[in-house]
Design brief:
mainly beta
């Protein structure tokens, strides 16, 4: 296919180049281009917000809280889960800082 591998920032997210040579986030599983790397990849992902009680019921968390939520970030094309974060309701996404090459 001729495309070189990008720089992996998470298990399923990498920074690569689009056909015009611009730096973009890509899904490692399906190759979907999420968007330009100038913003957080989370801004381009499908986001699912869940209550702590969902995770307590699954046995992942032992304590319930109405103050916090769980955010799950997925690829819009193949639905692989990129990341999960636990935050206070209403807080912005936790950001991953990636230094330039």
């Amino acid at each position: 296919m001729g495309e070189k591998m990008g720089r992996r920032i998470l298990e399923y997210v990498e920074i690569g180049q689009n056909s015009e040579g611009a730096r973009v986030y890509k899904c490692v599983c399906c190759g979907y281009v999420l968007g330009p790397s100038g913003k957080s990849f989370k801004d381009y992902a499908v986001v699912r917000e869940r209550s702590y009680s969902d995770y307590v019921e699954m046995g992942v968390l032992s304590m319930n809280s109405d103050r916090f939520i769980i955010r799950e970030f997925y690829c819009p094309k193949c639905a692989i889960r990129f990341d999960v974060e636990s935050v206070v309701k209403g807080e912005p996404y936790l950001d991953i800082k990636v230094s330039g090459d």
